[in-house]
Amino acid sequence: MKDIVFCSNNCFVLYSAAVQAKNSENKESVPTLPQSPMKERPPKAFHQYSNNISTLDVHCLPQLQEKASPPSSPPIMFPPAFEAAKVEAKPDELKVTVKLKPRLKAIHSSLEDCRPPSKKWKGMKWKKWSIQIVIPKGSFKPPCEEEIDEFLKKLGTTLKPDPVPKDYRKCCFCHEEGDGLTDGPARLLNLDLDLWVHLNCALWSTEVYETQAGALINVELALRRGLQMKCMFCHKMGATSGCHRLRCTNIYHFTCAIKAQCMFFKDKTMLCPMHKPKGTHEQELSYFAVFRRVYVQRDEVRQIASIVQRGERDHTFRVGSLIFHAVGQLLPQQMQAFHSPKALFPVGYEASRLYWSMRYANRRCRYLCSIEEKDGLPLFVIKVVEQGHEDLVLTDTTPK
Questions:
Q1: Which residue among 18, 182, 247, 321 is least crowded, i.e. fewest CB within 10 A of its CB?
Q2: What is the C-alpha separation between 202 and 264, in angstroms, rounded?
């Protein structure tokens, strides 16, 4: 038999298998140490030193003094299988419900279970946190826009643009100033010299119709009739939108018809409150915004002629940077010398233009252009008006 050597407390012990058999016979007569409540200690054993020569005495291995173990923690109690453990919480706390599923038991058989193990967190539900900020009720009043503007003006930390000048253009139909709401009277269109009309005020007039190109026809005719018609809502002149019910004489401004709750239809007809059907109608129009190109059809040549023939200088005609002041005139004896194949040179013509300065590269100045007569021929005069300098007058016999 082979001998086995154990090392314990710096002592070498030769343990023989034959001695083990002998010790098992004397096991009942060997005293043992008391067992610990938490962990079982191996019983005290007497070992015999033996070799091939002689039998040695049996010695007891030294035993270390056993330290007192700390008190054990109470065991954790789990609920039985197939039973849900509910954790009750306060109303303000998060409520979590945990369901414990039974563990699959191992089946002792020749065939192995090929089913995959269940996920650890399968079936768990999580609640999302939602943060709500509650402002206590009190006497706090948020500042208005005027107070904020005044406060920023005192600080001097912002740059505020200049206020937009007020639009004094007035609609000759409804007599309201400036452009209207998109879903209302809409933008102003030019009808004639210093005459303006709202798009929808003209479009919803009885006589006016629109071409495919977006031109409004008979606007001037509707204006002449409106000067004699009184609105049923505001009792002012200029009403052009009448009720389309036969023999109904009710007529309104477009804005007054909306206020009076008239019903508008998609075929550009309108019914007053007395004749409109009850409830909603499938052909009713409730949105009046016009985003397409719409303009008033007019005779531009006649309009320009009327501007030129007016002796009063109440209006200014401007094209880009060119400002027109006077057209001048030509006598019959001057016609031969005061024209070219492409232009006429009327005496008394006067216009001004804003153009780049001759002295500074990054400034503009005013050039006053006029035509005079000298020795029966035209004389072209340009007067340069620039701030900080004397007026410079340039003359020549040709416009170039």
A1: 247
A2: 15
H-run or E-run covering 302:
helix 300-309
CATH hierarchy code of domain 316-396 = 3.30.160.360
Residues linked to residue 346 through DSSP beta bridges, in sequence order: none
User: Could you give phi then psi for residue 339, rounded to 5 degrees?
Assistant: -160, 165
Quick check: 293 and 199 in contact, CB under 8 A? no
Q: Which of 341, 355, 345 is nearest to 378 (CA)?
A: 345
Residue 68 to residue 32: CA distance in whole angstroms: 19
What is the Cα–Cα distance from 71 to 38, expressed in whole angstroms?
Answer: 10
Tell me the C-alpha distance between 235 and 228, whole Å: 12
pLDDT in tens, 349-385: 999 998 999 998 888 899 999 999 988 899 999 999 9
For 103-232, where are the alpha helices, taking DSSP H only?
145-155, 199-203, 219-226
**158-314 is a CATH 3.30.1340.30 domain:** no
Among candidate residues 44, 56, 48, the one with its CA nearest the CA of residue 20: 48
**Which tens digit of pLDDT belongs to each residue from 98-128?**
555 555 554 554 444 556 666 666 666 676 7
DSSP result, 82-104? T-PEE----TTSPP-EE-PPPPP
Q: How far, CA to CA in Å, does 112 sit from each of 102, 106, 117?
A: 20, 9, 13
Predicted model pTM: 0.44
